[in-house]
Amino acid sequence: MKIPITAIRLPTRPGREYESRFDREQSLLKMLAIPITSVILASMVTTLPIFTAEPLLPPFGLLMMLGWRLMRPGLLPVWSGIPFGLMDDLFSGQPFGSAGLLWSLAMLALEIIDSRAIWRDYFQDWLIAALLITAVLLGGLWIAGLAHAAPEPSLLMPQIILSILLYPLVVRICARLDSWRLAT
Amino acid sequence: MAPPPHRRPGFSRKAQYSLFVTYVAATAGTIVAALLLSISVVDPTGFAALRTFGAEITAPIARIFSALRVSTQAITHDASAYIDAASKNVTLEKEARANRSKLIEARALRVENARLRGLLKLTDEGEQQIAVGRLISSTASSTRRVATLSVGRNYGVERAQPVRGPAGLIGRVIEVGPTTARILLVTDAENLVPVMRVSDGLPAFSAGLGNGTVLIKPLNLGESPFRVGDVIVTSGNGGLYRPNTPFARVIRKTSDGALAIPFADPGNTPYAIVMQQYQGAARAAQQAAAPDGKTKEIKE
Question: Taking CB atoms and an 8 Å cut-off, how many pairs form between chains A and B?
Fold first, then answer.
């Protein structure tokens, strides 16, 4: 008997083809590794050959961490700002410990906000993120000014605005990663 | 999304304690980070090894992207060169004719200069290149203007060596790793460069503003003597930067100096040359004999 060519289906995922579609386990590795890796990779964006005359590149690591934290409260522990921040310090050029301190303070602030304002909508989250981004960037400038000569704070305005406007995009990336993370 | 109710773990002692431990860890970690920060504020080069490690592990990726960027820039440059090729050729030929006579004059001046220097018994260390590399990344998200160079200790690069590009001075080396080096750009607020106006040798200092421009401050007090379009070169004072390296062009006069844009744009520099210190031995001797007798090396 001849098999019509339309009837031939290439098995796309041979391993999964005959498995039960019910009661699949989520991969624990994926669930843990995706948020951590995404934040660290976002911190490492500065290693790309991007040269700007003024600080313009948004702190993508911070945006990613805030995105995960605000989208999925309880996923990142309270202390996670410290390792993420110290990792970011390796690549950002700030004095070592600057992001470690500021990101950790941001996470603690979010913990306090979470206990006050429990039900929030998206725009409130955006506002909170905007305030925290501004505070962290200005704090970073202040800390850089402690160690070295530092420029005027008004220099940071373009970067702050760009970072705030990019936050929704980063949250969407987090959401995509989250659905991949939790996919069975 | 509302937070999960993990902050009220009920009557389970274990859950209560583990929640408490996360808060303790967060607080303790914040204090540790603050301590690390205070160490790095007191001693800015203290964590150089860690940063160098970070630069080293990401250098291969940065090199690939840098190579990609350079080749795409070359392609677009080549393509745009074909547009208006004929008229461009005519203007370039005209320029070349005009430059030829100037070049001959400059050669004659150089010979005369060498003769006069010989009379004065001024010795000049030759123009010594140490290594040629490419800028592969920069701290584009921080207020510090630091770039990473693709060569390091493997090519003999050391701290406090000036770095220039084909267009002008880029900065100086502040940290060196096995195959990468970090360069403090001249636009960083920390970087002070002794400069002079090329037309009359008016001595000045340049300090970065962190936004791509530098502030030129003359040593003499009084009204700013600069005019828009003045060309600034390094003066060689201090013994670090070689004199007459092209530096910046004045774009605006201020009350006590001038704003200038450096000639070398780190984003558009095909290569960067690490140079020998201009008067390295004299500089070392001067720093060893600091006025207070204690200062060994100035903070770079």
Answer: 200
Q: Is the dihedral of CA B213, B218, B219, B221 positive or negative?
A: negative
Q: Which of A104, A88, A96, A85 is nearest to B28 (CA)?
A: A104
* Single pTM value for the model: 0.80
Residues in chain B closer than 8 A to A81 (CB atoms): 26, 29-30
Local confidence band at A2 (pLDDT 50, 70, 90 cut-offs): low
Instruction: Please tell me the predicted confidence (pLDDT) of residue B293.
Output: 47
pLDDT-flagged residues of chain B (< 70): 1-7, 122-127, 289-300
| Per-residue confidence (pLDDT) for residue A95, from 0 to 100 | 86
Q: Cα separations (Å) of A45 from A36, A40, A59?
A: 15, 9, 9
pLDDT band per the 50, 70, 90 thresholds, residue A167: very high
The answer to whether the Cβ–Cβ distance between B142 and A79 falls below 8 Å is no
